[in-house]
Amino acid sequence: MSDKLKVLKKQGLFVFLDILRLHRKKLPIELRSFGDVYVKQEFRQHQDANSRQYEMFLEQWQYYLADLKSMKDVKQIGKKISEEDKLLLNDDQMKTLSQLEEETKKTFKKE
Prior knowledge:
Blueprint: H1 3-26, H2 29-45, H3 51-70, H4 83-87, H5 91-110
Helix pairs in contact: 1-2, 1-3
């Protein structure tokens, strides 16, 4: 493992822990459990990424972390993904996005 990747992984650990902490602090239990599982899966899936991939992965989670930090209440969660951004997603990412949308709809239907 390169030195750069070691530094990125250490940063990733802090981002991961901050996200879980903010989930506990700001999200209702239904969303928190869903969000925690999703975050853990994503970080697990990227353990073997190279430096460039992990850097891009971490950057996106840092954006999410910044959104969580600025969130005042649960009604503010998330934001619409632009069509331009959707075009940048690969097939696996589109599948994950669709699954996330379905699970979110199920969660909010229960309420």
